[in-house]
Amino acid sequence: MPGQQLQTTAFILAKKPTGSDTFEQLTVFSANHGVQHCLLRKAKPGPSASARRSSAPRSEGWLDLFDEAELWLESSNQGRTWFIKEHRLLQRHDGIGRSYDALKAAAALATLLSRNPVPDESREAVTGLLRNTFTALAGGGRPDIVWLKALYCLLRDEGYPVKQQWWPQLTAADRDTAAQLLNQPLAIQTADAPTVARILLRLEEWVQAETEIRLS
């Protein structure tokens, strides 16, 4: 009897070993289903990873962190475990891996979404936030500002009183800078790194003190 089948478009948020030589576990996020934990069969031994990547089509054989991919899933236990039968790469954000700070920012957003429930009605907006954030980081946008924007937008869109409660805690000068950081395009941002770090720290501290969101 065939198992339950599902097709979805999702972002790869995390990859980790399962203790098996056959499968690795992927945490993915999709607009239709939110967070899912899937098993992907490992590539068979053969050429080196670099050789496989250079010779194989980008849509075959492997999936990387922060990829957007179309997945064909199957479950034999009513959706408790999903196996990735097939996949097709839609977008790879290669540029993220070229910067340690960009990698940290992308991982911070991926971790947040992996560990905190997202309401059904918010999944579409969160998918757009993931796409915009990963694209900005891959394109060389300043990671500190991208992460600040992503975290603030997520809080605001989820209905947290971030403007009513966090905003007044900032000094007048930091409120002016924060307004520019949040409202102006990345390409014209000029705030110095210590100022951005201070504003971001205040936001993260507010999240930890006033919400149930787990940042790490």
Topology readout:
Layout: E1 4-17, E2 23-30, E3 34-41, H1 49-55, E4 68-75, E5 82-91, H2 100-115, H3 123-138, H4 143-157, H5 162-166, H6 172-183, H7 193-210
Parallel strand pairs: 3-5
Antiparallel strand pairs: 1-2, 1-4, 2-3, 4-5
Helix pairs in contact: 2-3, 2-4, 3-4, 4-7
**What assembly state would you assign to the polypeptide chains in this entry?**
single chain
Low-confidence stretches: 47-59
The helix-and-strand class reads: alpha+beta
Mean pLDDT: 90
- Return Rg in Å: 19 Å
Strand segment tally: 5
Percentage of residues assigned to helices: 40-55%
Distance between the termini: 41 Å
Largest sheet: 5 strands, mixed, barrel
Spatial sequence of strands, sheet with the most strands: 1-2-3-5-4
By DSSP (H or I, 4+ residues per run), the number of helices equals 7
Q: Order of SSEs, N→C? A: EEEHEEHHHHHH
Q: Strand percentage, roughly?
A: 15-25%
| Domains, number | 2
General shape? elongated
Describe this structure in words.
With 216 residues, the chain is of the alpha+beta class. It has 2 domains: 4-92, Nucleic acid-binding proteins (OB fold (Dihydrolipoamide Acetyltransferase, E2P), Beta Barrel); 96-210, no CATH class. It has 7 helices and 5 strands. The chain has helices at 49-55, 100-115, 123-138, 143-157, 162-166, 172-183, 193-210, and strands at 4-17, 23-30, 34-41, 68-75, 82-91. The chain has a 5-stranded mixed beta barrel. Strand 4 and strand 5 (82-91) form a beta hairpin. The protein is elongated and about 60 Å long. It starts with a strand and ends in a 6-residue tail after the last helix. Mean pLDDT is 90; it is low at 47-59.
